[in-house]
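Section 5.1 Outputs to date
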Amino acid sequence: MALSLHLHHRLPLALLLVVLVAASHGVPTSGDSYDPSLCLKPQLCGSVNISYPFYLSDDTGVLLGNSSSYCGYPGLGIKCDGGNQAVLELGGEKYVISSINNTGGGLTAVTVVDQEVLDDQACPKIDHNVTLPPWFTIPNTSVVDYIVFFLDCYFGPEFTGLKPDTNSSITCPNFMSLGPRMSFVFLWEDVPYRDTNWWQGRCQVFQVPVLKDGLQGNPQNDAGWMKGGFGKALLEGFPLAWDYQKPQECVQCEGTNGQCGYNQTGQFVACLCSGGRVGDHNNCTAATPGKPLSKLVVLVLPNCSGDYWLL
């Protein structure tokens, strides 16, 4: 049965237009959209499968007015170098990803190898520490050990303290320095006279994590260790554990099958839904924008007295 109401007050024309537009087009929940190509489909870079929350660092775009935005988590931009090497930057240094454990919808670990190790596999010389952003950590010492490089050490005639034996210095040509300088490499627990800090002010010191499983035998008893044998452990790389507290907006978005979009400063921008739609209130299961109001028909008719009837 149709319901009719008699309005005793004249309706303004603007109100009539609002009623008519709402009835014919519906009230949208969100009018925002984005280029769906911004969200990466799983793809191979060499042997590494790259998928959300990783993203290709070259594939950024404008998202709700934010330039250089991306679909993925902060710090997980990967450059596919030459189409066969997945490269991740940490502290300005390049690391090649050898594997990603990204199953079951949760990122757990990434294994990386320093680019300098790959460039000189015979006897790699590492001249920087590993600098991690706040969203990555290195697992505990049950799976990781540390190799320490003491580079270009100088012990002048005034030095009378304890120091490593000259015969334990690295003999690779690329470590040789002009003059009486020497370089050493030890596992952290094997550093001689560690409590004396003999290296302070005399060496450049760099520490590199390695997998314990990648260490073969006892370096102290390995004649090849100082000739570059330590490179085998470095080639195995080291693991990075994901330790990122996602903002609540991202948690809510992913809970509705959306993907999180961030800007270049690492701030959450939007919930990215399928089909190029931005989720309303970070929710991809909300009503589709522009959906008509259900079975609502409004007719506005004037009568001869100048009043209006709503049917």
